[in-house]
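Section 3.1 - Work completed
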Amino acid sequence: MTRAWRNTAIVLFAAALVVGGLVGEKLLALTGEAQSQLRLYTELMHLAHENYGDEVAYRDLVYSSIQGMLRTLDPHTTFLTPEYYDRMRERQQASFYGLGILVSMRNGQLTIINPIEGTPAWRLGLRAGDVISTIEGEPTDTMTLDEAVSRLKGPKDTQVNIRVVRRGLDEPLDLTITRAEIPQTTVRYAYMMDSLTGYVRLTDFARSTTSEMSDALERLRGEGMERLLLDLRNNGGGLLDQTVTVSELFVPQRTMIVETRGRVANSYQSFYSENSGEPFAMPLVVLVNDGTASAAEILAGAIQDHDVGLVVGTATWGKGLVQTVYNLSYGTGLALTTAKYYTPSGRLIQRDYSSYFDYYTHFDNIASADGVPEIPVEGPEFSTDLGRTVFGGGGITPDIVVEPPDGPTMLGFLFARGAFFDFATEYANRHPIDDPAWNPDEEILDEFRAWLIAEEIATAEEIEEVFADAEARDFARARIRADVFNATLGPVEAHRVVAAEDVQIQAALGLFDQAAELLNQRRSLGKRQ
């Protein structure tokens, strides 16, 4: 194995060194300079392995040296370990085999956030707030979230044994669950906010995204939708082909969606809308923020450049580097930057990354006092189809900037301890709620305050200080209501509560008249053409 890893080190290093020297699985011939550098590298690795003052594996030396080398290129060229490569490919598939639960680590406990309707977990009655304490007899409190999730997944029709701790029950539940196919859902929410307004939350772009989006839009039209709020906040991107086909649902026929430009000839590509169906033809508002990246920026940029919708929120991340994934030895891969994304108007999506600190912290993208992002306004100007000015300089600058409020900062420690979620799920177990009009009153808020003290989450003095603030009390009531609905009425009703308190969503709902006017101007342009 040691000899194999020495050989692999040479192959992996060479693959990254020649940048694109893989055609299929064949490595192109190396230059004399590259060969001499490889000799230096293998000599260094051998000396470190044999003479370092502690035990060090060849694998660790290889992986760390690759990571250091790739860091000199750009922030998104990435070496994919076998474990990460498998997870990446799984995320891009339309389904996997598992139990059908959304889980998170809460206070060091593997906690069910929501069972997915129709899945094995849902049929066995698992609930939001249940804690999975063991998987196949092994405690989960020593596992990372990724480790726990990987153990819950497995081949179709195989079984996994878990122990579930539920508040209100004296004894844990020992369950054996048979794994089944679980759809990967990228359209997280799709519902009517009122009699006219459809809402769609798109979280990323995977194999099933276009069909999910098409189905959601068709269903909402059947429910009376005449305008759409498309939420792309914190959508980190995904598959380019799905981005193009989703964009085709919104932009005019035979218009550009995105262009890629790189160093080599085949990296220059233009992607156009080839959808022959009916145009979207509804007022459209798109919500974005600094978590909107890559493929989601392509979609937002195409909608903005073709004037088919208003982009609202805060400036997007600015991730416009195209990664081509190459298969390497031992189940590893290389996501190599081979080009850059440009919007139809010619804007480069990629933000400057000469400072990795500024790039990852967004320290260089702070809005000015009047709420207008400073950096994009200083960038080059471009024009949309209607001649509206849009700004380059990285990312997508919204047509209308709406900054999210900080919220009551004194409640942060309650979120960190999972207090709202835990109290709400415990309350829902004792008081099943089936009325969407239910709202926590002062008596329930007092019960919550007593619960916080009994659970030793905060002292009576701290609670008194926090809840003396009216904003904090209102926020707590809304959060409890949302988490109770999540446990009883489902995630859509929970999201309705969250949306009612979401400043950016509420601001977007007031902008449909402007979106309608933009759409009318777009129609006039189409007639003139």
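Second construct:
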Amino acid sequence: MSSRMVRSAGLISVATMASRVLGVARETVLAAVFGASGGPEMDAFNVAFRVPNLLRDLFAEGAMTAAFVPTFTRTLTTRGRDEAWRLGNLVINALLVVTGLLAVLGIFFAEPITHAIASGKEFASVPGKLALTTQLTRIMFPFLTTIAVAVAMMGMLNSLNRFFIPALSPAMFNVATIACAFGLAPLMPHVGLSPIVAIAIGTLLGGLGQIALQWPVLHREGFRYRPVIDFSDPDLREMLRLMAPGTLGLAAVQVNVFVNTYFASTQPQGAISWLNVAFRLMYLPIGLFGVSIATAALPEISRFAASFDHAAVRGTVSRGLRLMLMLNVPATIGLIALAQPIVAFLLQRGRFDDHDTIATAAALMCYAPGLIGYSAVKIVSPTFYSLRDSRTPVAISAASVAINVVLNSALVRALGFRGLALGTAIAAIFNAGALLWLLGQRLEGIDGRRIARAFLKILSASLIMGAVAWLADYALAGILPSRSVIRFHVDVLLAVRLVAAIGLAIAALVGSARLLAIEEFDDAFGRVLRRVMPRREEARR
């Protein structure tokens, strides 16, 4: 992997870490204030947010990133910054028109939309729950427009090799939500509104915050906003041509989660929140490792694809996938081994009780195997769009959604809400596997044997790590008291238990990776050491 790509992925990981940590803090605050199964508010919010969030993922983030970055990068490379800025303005204004119209329609049709996606008897039987969900949906629909603009800005900055601030910008969503939970929620009852309305308002403020954080950086790069729009522009039409099928090509994860919401509304109260929290926890390593690697790799892949250098595209994809496996396979095994203490430490306080912890941990364990699939798709699917192939991801995405629906309808009967998480994970693995196979056909190989060999070695080391983590946690749970008169002591004991188990697990992973001579491990950690050691030498001098 090129030094620039590794360095960029590192910067993105640091920024994403800050955002994801704030995301966990956000979930902790919401769980403590509103609980999971203790009331209808969080279920209502999660369902209401699902609709604008789904549209955001489909139109603003997924398809925008896949279609806009290659088009903007190609324009920047071949025709210069002025033409690239012109394209950026055209895209932003087109997004304002399209997403603004979608937001207005969403507000107007909020009630039938809400009834369509949360019609389960368990959900609808709670008095006022559907009405609250409709109200929250109306408040949050404009979030789609704010995020569409923020993602366009992110794409421009990434194409200019500016990664840190764009990766940090999602943190504004979490900051705004936490601030509203503490500052605005207590005031809502005084004006006749549910406290959860404050969280919906925080969602909108978070979208605006993402724009505000990136704007100064983009301005320094030379971008100036112009209120121009021209749907006949060939570059804009090329992007829209890729974006339309790209919406479906990158839709599998979001549509599958949307399907989960529908099925979960038939389960006992709290199931939607358990699945939502578990998915967010599982998405933490995806954001840190999968998205960061994909974001850093995409501009390189786009440049190589623009010059028809398929060998370089193949090499970049292969290196990105192997680095992703080195980071995400251990993360997957670790989440499975330590699911319950992780959930308990992060969330079990206030109205989030033992029952919520056990249920959320069970969902997290079932979601975790899909982590590798989700991360691989983040790298592979945009590669097809860089190669101007939008049909293949569409076909595989459609097949993945169909498989998810079939699996979920069967597994929910056998395993309840846990079956929904497991079905989604299996569908994600299918999506990634099929795309990888077809990309190999398109590029005449992607070092498949090397990737498979690396995967088997990394999996072996990760299983040893997972066994050590589980045994260490089991032993410490028997030694350390599980209850305390003071809540703070419980948190400290859980922290000690987790830190010790994770520390021993990492030591086992390092030893196993050395023993198995895992090249990707040596490469990743070797680069870190080479960046640190020279500084130590300079300090000694």
